[in-house]
Records
---
Amino acid sequence: MFDVKQANEKPAKMKRVYYRNIYRAKSQFTGLLYISPWLIGFFIFQFYPLISSFFYSFMDFNMFSKREFVGMQNYIYMLTKDELFWKSLKVTFTYVFLSVPLKLVSALLIAMLLNMKLKFVNFFRTVYYIPSIMGGSVAISILWKAMFMKDGYFNSLLSIFSIPPTNWLGNASLAIYTLSSLVVWQFGSSMVIFLAGLKQIPSELYEACKVDGASRISMFFNITLPLLSPIIFFNLIMQLINAFQEFTGALVITNGGPVNATYLYVLKVFDDGFRFFKMGYASALSWVLFVIILIFTSLIFKSSTGWVYYTDGGR
């Protein structure tokens, strides 16, 4: 039997579905329109250079002559004949393994201090965060260079205590430590993230431990560190990636010297690409750095199952 009511409801239902799809399409278009500046910037300044650099790494390309395909020659030369490649890689590993742990430890210690109930605590939080706002700026690098020159402010301070001046930037064995101290000083971003993590730890856990007679050290290793391990994991990944790509400080403060003691890997990429115009070779160097960062990041992710703990019991 023909149902008139059902026949009338079907076009109305189809009409509602049609208008709902139009509304969703408009919403998606509006969203894409809002993020279009970022999308345009991403494809022009990140995605396209990434893909093009991969193809350039297999070419002899100096930006002034026709590109010539050379296969794996850039990589072979890099691994077998370029001594500066191995030197810059060694310096970069030293810089990373020196600066990243010190930065994370400093950030955690200061975050724990600023998590206490202190007077003017908001003021101190702002003061400690200010260096991170300045980031890897040229101005801060120039200031650091002025501080650690042989006749700089730091040696002037040491002279008050009758300590002879030290050539912090001209001594090959000390320059890398001086350069690392700059990034360690800029621990504000990691500190803020640690502070947010500390705020999320239930105070009842500490109170229960105090009732059981646990010491502060015991509470730190059995409560604070395990519950902060996801934050430590995140900060470790971010700071490791940033440290491998450090450039401004090494260029402005020491320019890779003395005797290449601070010749970081990205500084070599810059020199080969924009000073010697070996853009194909510089692209190959960049992709090797990408692989190195990928390997270290993967190792940290793989190891995280054994030391990163979550409040829901997962790992």
Note: The radius of gyration is 27 Å.
---
Amino acid sequence: MQQSTIVPFPGTEDRFGGQGARRVYAFAKRSFDILFALAFILMTLPVWIAIAVAIKLSSPGPVFFAQPRVGRNAQVFRCLKFRTMRPDAEAMLKDSALAAEFEKSWKLQNDPRITPIGRILRKTSLDELPQLLNVLKGEMSVVGPRPVQVRELAERFGPWGPTVASVRPGLTSLWSVSGRSALSYPERVRLEVEYVRRRSFWFDLKLVLLTVPAVIKGSGAV
């Protein structure tokens, strides 16, 4: 899948620290990303197959869904997920009531576009398993701010957009383990920015461990 580029946000800066520390962290983080993604894909391969079969049998359309999201340094990439919506999902969003709710938080609490299988996948976060492929490609990391759309970053993150776009987006994040969609969008922005400023290898490991109970509880998943 080919990447495209948007104009980089002005003022993007690396907030991690000295050059030596940045290099050590970057090497450790990327090494962990590759090993984690490979191991998790191999361990969950039967789950991938079962999900693919369930999607194909339950509704027409492709197994995977890819949507442009903003990556590190404002690079736009195609973020992968298992398809959880009906094929006419985009057309349904043109409904004025749905569109108004979506504009508030970029999510719908009782989204009529989601298939029955899709609701299970979203509640368990299994729909995001294909993003492990994005991690292997270097477009995402295991831990980082959750990937957002171009317009979403510009409109919702405002002056904090450069901070969030200065690192790779992650499979999980500080926001993911703090309530996700149960939080307001300004609170999400605060948590994503807080991660960028606090990030370290040990903080990343802590968030990976906290993700397990968050996924089991389904906290804030919609």
Note: Residues 1-14 have pLDDT under 50 and may be disordered.
---
Amino acid sequence: MSVPKYDEIMPAVLAELAKPNIGMLEWKSLEDPLAKYFDLTEEEKNTEYESGNGRVFLDRIGWALSYLAISKLIERPKRGYCEITKVGLSLVGKKDEIKAHVKGKITEHDAQRKANKEADDSVEPGPVLNSEVTPDEALNQAAQNIRDNVYEDILDTILSKKPYEFERLVVRLLEKMGYGGVVKNAGQVTQQSNDGGIDGIIKEDVLGLGRIHIQAKRYKRDSVIGREDVQKFVGALAVAQSNKGVFITTSSYSKAAIEYADNLNGSTNVVLIDGARLAEFIYDYDLGMQTEQSVIIKRMDSDFWDKMQDD
């Protein structure tokens, strides 16, 4: 099954904490029994957010515990530990009642917090529980949506430029990614006429003994590059006496082209980069990008707080 939502995890948390002789429990120790309860595979259990901000299942357990604590169904005797309350025990096994109880308490909690801050009455309380995602997931999804829109803009802009500009762009991108190291002017675009199927070259060392050859195809987004084109590039590498090639396009590759590149013998290595990966690389390596806004999320430093003696 897929990773359960935080509201699906809440009843399972209470059931686990209600077991005999459990008492106070370190919250992260709930991960394995809950994974077993939901019959998750190791891959599902360890799935990470695309942003890299931690594992999805563990994050959802953390938010389930937060909502249960605010709703007084569990308590936190000390940092990193949790324990079921009498109210929590009374609701074990009652999924609908747990969800309704938590939603009501969170709404009260948010309304009180707004009142304390003299917030605008038009703001809806407790928006998180109106969806199936945690605040972290909502933030990650919003960030990914923004990235996806920028990816589209990147490719549309590339397609509006001259083909030669695309060749220069991909050479600069590979330099940004670290290829060429400290070699001055490591990347170069080949002459447009008689380039022999090679659009750019990256020198890997000062003497130029190691080289990466590049082919760049600025095609429409719905175009598909087939095996024949990749074979021609491999032939061009052989003529250039090179065993390293990168084929970059704004479009995509056919299954046969991908399989051909994957199955080349060890004497020649060809990496295929399609439009989607190209846009991601440009974004991640800040080529022609500028930071518009940063959101800083802070968490408590466990090492700092755990050094203090518990009461």
Note: The longest strand covers residues 211-217.
